[in-house]
Amino acid sequence: MGDKVKKLAILGSTGSVGRQTLEVVRAYPQKFQVIGLAAGKNMELLAEQVLEFKPKFVSFQNSRNELPRGGWTAFSMEEMASHPEVELVMVATTGKAGLAPTLAAISAGKTVALANKEVFVMAGGLVLSEAHSRGAKILPVDSEPSAIWQCIHGEERNVAKITLTASGGPFRARPLKELASVSPEEALRHPTWKMGKKVTIDSATLMNKGMEVIEAHWLFDVPYDRINVVIHPQSIVHSFVEFVDGSVKAKLSPPDMRFPIQYALSYPERWPSDSHPTFSPAATGSLTFESLDSNRYPCFQLALDAGKKGDTYPSVLAAADEVAVDLFLSRRITFTDIPKLVEDALSQHRPQRSPSLDYILAADEWAREFASHWRPT
Amino acid sequence: MGDKVKKLAILGSTGSVGRQTLEVVRAYPQKFQVIGLAAGKNMELLAEQVLEFKPKFVSFQNSRNELPRGGWTAFSMEEMASHPEVELVMVATTGKAGLAPTLAAISAGKTVALANKEVFVMAGGLVLSEAHSRGAKILPVDSEPSAIWQCIHGEERNVAKITLTASGGPFRARPLKELASVSPEEALRHPTWKMGKKVTIDSATLMNKGMEVIEAHWLFDVPYDRINVVIHPQSIVHSFVEFVDGSVKAKLSPPDMRFPIQYALSYPERWPSDSHPTFSPAATGSLTFESLDSNRYPCFQLALDAGKKGDTYPSVLAAADEVAVDLFLSRRITFTDIPKLVEDALSQHRPQRSPSLDYILAADEWAREFASHWRPT
Q1: Which of A185, A198, B87, B248 is the most exposed place for a label (fewest CB within 10 A)?
Q2: Distance (Å, whole) CA B292 – CA B304
């Protein structure tokens, strides 16, 4: 193992990925210096994290009085992500929140570990061209893009095809006619993964997998017609990569976000870890795969279509979905209204070609406005 | 793709791996110059190959008159394998036959694509130290070692554990008490792989997998207690590698030797190939894994024990097995006599510590003599 200390800022430190990032820091304290912590609403947990990790910079939405006093400076996420003392930025926010700080980090040439897939969905082209011109690295944190990244390690030029796996969520076997009446509690009960609320609902609709296809398209420079998705209920194979000679590599592990989070943090190294259970073929017994039924998962097709169309469509998709998931969680629309709302937003949107950041954000605003006034027919 | 022509000699060109090597040469004629062909008994096919590929050197056991005349020189396999005009030697022989030519090739600093696993079983330590001192590369051709090699590509230092897969052969579900009466024809009917006779019988007894464990131990410098074997009846996952962080990579493809043969020949590149079917997760449906039942496969344990003991034991194992398989194929012993013969040879052998090649060959001779006089009790 190298002796280099990574100077880390965590955006979204109180969320699921943020907390697990800090678990890795606890397991390898000599490897990290936590320079910055940023959180949204959970000030109680942020206060504990500030006491434990003693960051130099803290970003928060509520009152300063809720945090312990000490030697830290209050910063915006953008200031923190682009500060000269920070080297590695973990973007563990969800939805739109990560876009501006990610662009700030990239413009400052930082290495970005990106768990917030909406950043690529909204502005994949912009993010990549900026990263390219600034020499910034973007490391995937989501389990499936991380799996692809690990499989192509050392032979990026030989990739022919990518297959992302999807668990199928909690409603994979539910009769279609019952989907309109599923509750938020049922939708939040994911069969294999423990994740934040937004991504868990997106995993039940497979919007999440559609967004991962867009993310994989940008991250690995693979055209959409060479990216497949297959349902894999056990969530142990996290993706397949087929190479030009027809050989396939897969990345496997139990469904535990600590694997991809630690890999993004340890990259280009791997660090020994005994703290989480590993995959045993004989104990697992069987790995199964089935085709994706697009009638069951209309959000997946909406995401894929928006990704292929490009322009401001993916931004509208992400914004409309974010609002729709909120409306579903607060019981104001049904589970099957989510794709209807998103579809209506996409069909009524007037796209902007090759949009700048301003146009991307304007499309986002428009879609949020549209979605918040949307009513089921 | 690079423009460099690989100057190739094929030892065992008329066998299963040899013929498939020439299929790759046919598919990529601009990539290869066939400098040498060597075969044992099948002079008719060798004659055809000589006409088609016009090698400079030919090695054969029978009369020169059976081959077409032309501009070739008759060579021994050792002469051919070490000749300055040859760069890459495909060792596609079986049993003991490949040992001397492999050592000759390595001593001359050639790159060796090794399909003849008995070479590592008999003399792994010798072969590796010679390869190291001469700067010769050894590339695995067997599907499972090739899978491991591909999975660890670029992160050789991070390997924690290796799991080789085994189909379990044609008798995986046969009642144990019926195994004594299975016929050579049944044993040659492998459920997933098309291979030569020797390796097919070794796959039915799992001697083959035990030898692969020894091969993997040497090739990848992994201690025996970190090499596992799991039964995988579909033969699609060709091995698993677990890294120090608990992540696992697998290599998958339909059971077709053209994949690993082509990879060894194209390495460090991969060449596009549309000629063989590729793996589709949804079409495959299910991949299953079960523990190895050592009562069913006593040859596996014999190989593993011989590998761990080292010295001249593995050489005795390989020689006794080669004779036992011949005796079984000619119906002079039963299927369940194979492990009995090998076990008796190992138990009566007086080992030589850190053996030179002469001692390894003497142990081989002794074991062949012992095996040919062995009678079931």
Answers
A1: A185
A2: 13
If you count them, how many residues does chain A have? 377
Q: Which of B155, B244, B290 sits opposite A153 (nearest CB)?
A: B155
B210: pLDDT strictly greater than 60: yes
Q: Smallest CA–CA separation between B76 and chain A, in Å?
A: 34
Q: Which of A24, A155, A270 to mutate to test the interface with B (most CBs of B within 10 A)?
A: A270
CA–CA separation, A140 vs A211, rounded Å? 13
ipTM greater than cut 0.85: yes
Query: Which residues of chain B does A24 touch, with a Cβ-Cβ cutoff of 8 Å?
Result: none
All residues at 6 or more sequence positions from B132 whose CB lies less than 8 Å from its CB, including other chains: none
**What stretch of H or E contains B321?**
helix B313-329
Lowest mean pLDDT among A271-275, A310-314, B72-76, B97-101: A271-275
DSSP B39-53: -SS-HHHHHHHHHHH
* Chain A touched by B250 (CB under 8 Å): yes
List CB contacts (< 8 A) between A274 and chain B: 246
Query: 């579900």: which residue's tokens?
Result: B173
* Residue B288 contacts A, CB cutoff 8 Å: yes
- Distance (Å) from the alpha carbon of A154 to chain B's nearest alpha carbon: 6
Collect contacts of B69-78 with beta carbons under 8 A, ≥24 apart: B75/B36, B75/B38, B77/B11, B77/B38, B77/B101, B77/B104, B78/B104
A234/chain B closest Cα distance in angstroms: 11
Contact at CB, B245 and A155, closer than 8 angstroms? no
Residues 6+ apart with CB under 8 A from B183: none
Q: B273 CB near a chain A CB, below 8 Å? A: yes
Tokens read off for A129 = 């061209």
Per-residue pLDDT tens digits for A317-344: 999 999 999 999 999 999 999 999 999 9
Global confidence as pTM: 0.95
Q: How many CB atoms lie within 10 A of CB A74?
A: 12
Closest of B212, B180, B214, B217 to residue B199, by C-alpha: B212
| Residues contacting residue B375 through CB under 8 Å, at least 6 positions apart | none
Instruction: Provide the percentage of residues in chain B whose pLDDT is more than 90.
Output: 91
CB contact under 8 A, A253 and B246: yes
Helices (H), A239-286: 258-266, 281-284
| Strands of the sheet with B73-74, listed across from one edge | B73-74, B57-59, B32-38, B6-11, B88-91, B111-114, B138-140
- The answer to whether residue B2 scores a pLDDT higher than 70 is no
Beta bridge partners, A2, equal none
